[in-house]
């Protein structure tokens, strides 16, 4: 069973309560339960984390270097500001999929730039919390493909 890290950035702990017209009514606990269920169906396990602190996300990326087969990351506001998270992701040699619940390209101009996208193997934006499941499916597919080589 491969381990997939699902990392969430600032304010996602308020999912379902904060701006539901943008982010929906599902909570982060709902997203986690869906991710765990799908990962298990696909034969994988997940570590699911959320932090409002940049350094914790970096520490989890470093941890994933040791035992992770892939990362799904919603860096939230750190998407647009964190070279440090990009640098950490650049040390991770397995698949990385970037997820955004909202369509960041339909929002304020500053949200159109992502440092994380420079490393991500794929980006999913604007598909609501379903984007997490699509990202897990893609990471699982990439893990399987890498195992066949």
Describe this structure in words.
- By secondary structure, the protein is α/β, with parallel strands linked by helices.
- It has a single domain (2-148), classed as Rossmann fold (3-Layer(aba) Sandwich), CATH 3.40.50.
- The chain has helices at 20-23, 28-41, 54-67, 83-90, 130-148, and strands at 2-8, 44-50, 70-74, 96-100, 122-125.
- Strands 2-1-3-4-5 form a five-stranded parallel sheet, sandwiched between helices.
- Helix 2 packs parallel to helix 5 (130-148) and helix 3 packs parallel to helix 4.
- The model has no long low-confidence stretch (mean pLDDT 92).
- It comes from Rhizobium sophorae.
- Its EC number is 4.2.1.10.
- Belongs to the type-II 3-dehydroquinase family.
- Catalyzes a trans-dehydration via an enolate intermediate.
Entry keywords:
globular; 3-dehydroquinate dehydratase; Rossmann fold; five-stranded parallel beta sheet; EC 4.2.1.10; lyase; 40% helix; 149 residues
């Amino acid at each position: 069973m491969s381990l997939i890290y699902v990392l969430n950035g600032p304010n996602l702990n308020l999912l379902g309560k904060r701006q539901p017209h943008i982010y929906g009514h599902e909570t982060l606990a709902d997203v986690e339960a869906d991710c765990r269920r799908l990962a298990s169906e696909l034969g994988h396990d997940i570590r699911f984390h959320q932090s409002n602190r940049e350094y914790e996300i970096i520490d989890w990326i470093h941890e994933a270097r040791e035992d992770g087969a892939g990362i799904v990351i919603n860096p939230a506001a750190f998407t647009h500001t964190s070279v440090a998270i990009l640098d950490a992701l650049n040390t991770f040699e397995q698949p990385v999929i970037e997820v955004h619940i909202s369509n960041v390209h339909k929002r304020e101009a500053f949200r159109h730039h992502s440092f994380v996208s420079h490393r991500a193997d794929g980006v999913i934006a604007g598909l609501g919390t379903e984007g997490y499941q699509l990202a897990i499916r893609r990471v699982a597919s990439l893990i399987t493909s890498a195992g066949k080589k």
